[in-house]
Design goal:
175 residues; mainly alpha; 6 helices
């Protein structure tokens, strides 16, 4: 009886240790909440105008082309210029990485025997670089939007609309 109790106790102990080790491994492999979820808070009412502002920002050097028409503070200008410089430098670096990966991809295709697994991995690497660049652009655009006030957002949208209207070809007026 005593031997049975000791055997059961040892079994419970071993199972507990295995369960603890499994839980620790599972928790270690799980990304932290911060790594999984990144957010940019733009404020209430922004969901309607954010896509348009992002499009405008991508075409106007993060709104810097409108900086004189919508009065921006010195801090706002510095923030926008810093973001623009940062995304330009990041883009150049990642473009170089993309060119190297693309050249390596082409090199893989010049072999007599092509390893499809290696080729697929290289394609994933190239796509990963493109996704990183796109996400960095989106993040930077959202930061640029966040650097401006809601009134400035409205002014930018109106200025962009006026420029778009002015650039449309006009139909001739017949009398």
């Amino acid at each position: 009886m005593k031997a049975n109790i000791q055997a059961n106790a040892q079994t419970v102990l071993v199972l507990t240790m295995l369960l603890s080790a499994s839980a620790a491994t599972a928790l270690a492999q799980r990304p932290s909440a911060e790594a999984r979820r990144q957010e940019v808070q733009l404020g209430g009412g922004m969901s309607v105008i954010t896509p348009g502002l992002m499009e405008i920002g991508s075409k106007t050097k993060l709104f810097l082309l409108f900086a004189d028409k919508i009065p921006v503070t010195l801090d706002q200008r510095k923030k926008l210029e810093g973001l623009f410089l940062e995304i330009q430098m990041y883009g150049v670096q990642r473009e170089a990485d993309l060119e190297v990966a693309d050249a390596d991809f082409k090199r893989l295709l010049t072999r007599d025997t092509i390893d499809l697994g290696t080729l697929k991995a290289k394609m994933k690497e190239i796509e990963g670089i493109r996704v990183e660049v796109d996400m960095k652009k989106i993040e930077t655009l959202l930061q640029a939007i966040n650097a401006l006030t809601h009134e400035q957002h409205t002014q930018i949208i109106l200025l962009a609309r006026d420029l778009e209207e002015a650039s449309k070809p006009r139909a001739p007026i017949y009398q």
